[in-house]
Amino acid sequence: MDTIVFDGDDCAGFFAEHGIPTPSALFDSLLDTYYFAKNRAGQFVWGNRLLQEQHALADVRDILGKTDHDFLRRDLADRIRADDLSVMDRGLAVRNKLEVIGGENGALTWLFTTKAPIRDRHGKVVGIEGFSRDAQRSHDIMAPFHQFRACLEYVQQHLTENIAIDHLARLSCMSLSTFERKFKQHFSMTPKQYILHLKVHEACRLLPQANNIARVALETGFGGQSYFTKQFRTVVGITPKQYQRSLAAGRAGMAA
């Protein structure tokens, strides 16, 4: 296990050396999950921005060359190191392992960790990479959506009916204006647009086997076929009939 001296500028050096694709920049967009990659010596060779923030580093590159012992209590770092070595020695991934990490302030962090060996172009294990999902961060991200659970279930169960938005607001224990504002904030569409998209989604499920488009319009709560066609085109970009034909052409192509 060779210890590497990092100059702090070449984040991709480890991966280039072993002919491995550099981790995607999308990992920096994760809000509840830490991504890490380490060499066989246990040094970090990559980490995402959430990991940088967790360790209060000025730059994500500041983690390069460090080990868990630079950031965690010795007993915790020893445990993680032993776990990493086991994964690398066995060459097998560990999935959704619960880890409880205690911080200096006494707070506990609950992590669900998945890690796997990193192999070079020849199949040799040269390190380890993984994700650790922070249970509290995940809960905080999802918390705003929980307040809409009752109204979302109601919409699903009454999709063919004329759903009143003020009733959905009452189910969510909000005024109409607050409900509409928060709904759009979290779902990036108005409640009416959400209902429309759900109805069109159900229509897309029914259309492939349907012989009568007017019946699909009724079964999805649109009423008349002309109104259904107009709304369907607004969402999908083509008419229900064109949608059926495109699916039929695709099936014919696969059969050929």
UniProtKB/TrEMBL annotation:
Ranges of residues in domain HTH araC/xylS-type: 149-246
Signal sequence, start to end: none
Any matching Pfam family: HTH_18
PROSITE patterns, sorted: HTH_ARAC_FAMILY_1 (PS00041), HTH_ARAC_FAMILY_2 (PS01124), PAC (PS50113)
UniProt entry keywords in alphabetical sequence: DNA-binding, Transcription, Transcription regulation
Gene Ontology terms, MF aspect: DNA-binding transcription factor activity; sequence-specific DNA binding
Name recorded for this polypeptide: Transcriptional regulator
Domain (PAC): residue spans on this chain: 94-147
Claim: Glycosyltransferase is one of the keywords in the record: no
